[in-house]
Amino acid sequence: MLSLGASYMVCVCVSTYSMFGLVVMSSFELVLVVVLFLVIEVLSLSFRLVSLVFRLVANVVAGHLIVHLFVSIAFETLVITSFVFSSLFVVLLIIVLTLEFVAMLIQLYVFTLLVVINDSIL
Fold first, then answer.
1. pTM for this one?
2. What is the pLDDT of residues 25-81, one digit of tens each?
3. Which ranges of the chain does DSSP label H, i.e. alpha helix?
4. Which residue in 89, 66, 86 sits closest to 77, CA to CA?
5. How many CA atoms lie within 13 A of 98 on its CB side?
6. What is the phi/psi pair of residue 18, to 5°?
7. Phi and psi dihedrals of 22, rounded to 5?
């Protein structure tokens, strides 16, 4: 990614025009631009990893909330109504848990793939 920052620097140095003609950068300005692009690249890579963690945590919490909702509905219907009606929610709970397990495997694959890609960039 440093080469990307260097190409930005060359692009800025070559194609920076003002109203009065070509702007020539001094060595201090050149170092300032390089440092600025380096900081931007590091922040970009850091925020990628942070957003990956937030995405993973949000998906796990959403799955837990859905399972908790079905468990509480199953217990409430068992107390209020018959066993037959409550068994419907137990079957739905088993289906949701199976879907959560599949979603967990997909999240594991995506998380591993993105970590490997981000690690190869660094």
1. 0.55
2. 677 777 888 889 899 988 887 888 788 888 888 888 888 888 888 778 777 777 777
3. 2-15, 27-80, 83-121
4. 86
5. 6
6. -120, -170
7. -75, 130
